[in-house]
Amino acid sequence: MARSIPKALAIVLYYLKVFIVLILFFLGFSMLSSLIPDKPVRSNIENSLKYMENQPSYPHMIIEGMNHRPDYAMDGLITNIIYTVDNHDILKSSLLGRGRVDYSAPYTSQWKWVKYSVQNNTKDPNFFYARYWHGNSYLFRIFYAFTNYNEIKWIIFMITSLLMALFAMILYREMGALKALLLVSGLFFMNVYVMQFSMQMSPVLIIAILMSFILIRWIHRKKNPAVLFFISGAITTYFDLLTAPLLTLGIPMLIWVSLRDEENNLRKDLWSGFKKLVLFGLLWIVAYTGAWAMKMIVTIPFSEINIVADITNQFLRRAGSQDISRLDALVRNFNLIPLVFINILLAIPLLLSPFYFNKQGFSKAILFLVVAVLPYIWFFGAANHSFVHYWFTYRIQAITISGVLLAFYSLVDWGKVGKFSKLRFR
């Protein structure tokens, strides 16, 4: 017992050091981005207005439907914050999420407010969005230093497309064709292409893929990936505006379940895997909420609003279920899943499993289903936010779709199923 206490303390201190390094990185990155010369950034934002000021906030992209629309409003807000950054006031620029809005006129769009900010760039900021780190603003401020919003959308699409192609190739190498296809299928069923054009939505996709690359490497090196989930949670808080944050937890979890070394005893293997998933989830949520709390703490001395009250009120509102039930949030998000196509895919392993049942895949199937249920825990806990913003929060169900498909896949011995045996399976 005496030895376990110092060991536990050493672990806590290790994670505390990692957390402090991450917070210093967040502050450093924000301040360095704020030091980028204002002139080219503002010039490119002004040039962007000809493309965006008359665009609807939520247009339909190629395909009609709520689940296919981008959020130009939030990209406009991000752009307003970037435009208001001041090289001569980097601390407040890095912490307060400032902008200029015309409260005297009826709201039309965030991009109209960007235009207002441009036309009134000598006025003090009158809008503060300090409860977020706004890492996406400081990331895309770098892009605005050399191009406009129209080109930035293409750059985001190019970067995410290349990452996803590489992701698919690495998964194929590690898992084989069918398993890799099922793992990425959730993203495609949840219309990942919309995220690929968005300053607001793309960071969680990029983080999820990059963390997955590192995770696969760590698994090969027999390194404990627990700290990676901790880092992922904090980085997600820094870059994301509550779009689909759980992707950075769920996708690496699915990969870990797929590639983990299994134990001979099925019951022991299941319990060991479940405990690990719980640990990963707890570390992710501690870092996620801890980074948010730290944002509040470091902002208090510089804030021109009551940041504690703002974050507290917003948390209670978004986590609440005012005028709805928590079940409403689950149902509203669930209804955007293309069930017909998914059920067709599920019918194949369901029909094959009685004849080619893979007993060894049972514990893995249960673990996949454990990961698959995470989005509904999120919807239940953040009911108001998930209900109001369901047309982009629903994307975390990519974890559910991939998890369920992989679970039923695991129950079939595909090596014995006719033509499927010619494919490479693991």
Question: How is this structure best described in words?
Answer:
- The chain is mainly α and 426 residues long.
- It has two domains: 22-147, no CATH class; 151-422, no CATH class.
- 67% of the residues lie in helices and 1% in strands.
- The chain has 21 helices and two strands.
- Helix 2 (38-52) crosses helix 6, helix 7 runs antiparallel to helix 8 and helix 11 (226-239) runs parallel beside helix 13.
- It is globular, with a radius of gyration of 23 Å.
- The mean pLDDT is 91.
SSE arrangement, N to C:
HHHHEHEHHHHHHHHHHHHHHHH
* Fraction of helical residues: 55-70%
Number of E-state strands: 2
Which band does the percent of strand residues land in?
under 5%
- Amino-to-carboxy terminus distance: 42 Å
What tags apply to this protein structure?
2 domains; 426 residues; mainly alpha; single chain; 2 strands
What order do the helices and strands come in, and which of them pair?
Layout: H1 4-34, H2 38-52, H3 72-84, H4 90-95, E1 98-99, H5 110-119, E2 127-128, H6 135-144, H7 149-175, H8 177-189, H9 192-195, H10 202-220, H11 226-239, H12 247-259, H13 266-299, H14 307-319, H15 326-334, H16 339-352, H17 362-372, H18 374-381, H19 383-388, H20 390-393, H21 398-410
Antiparallel strand pairs: 1-2
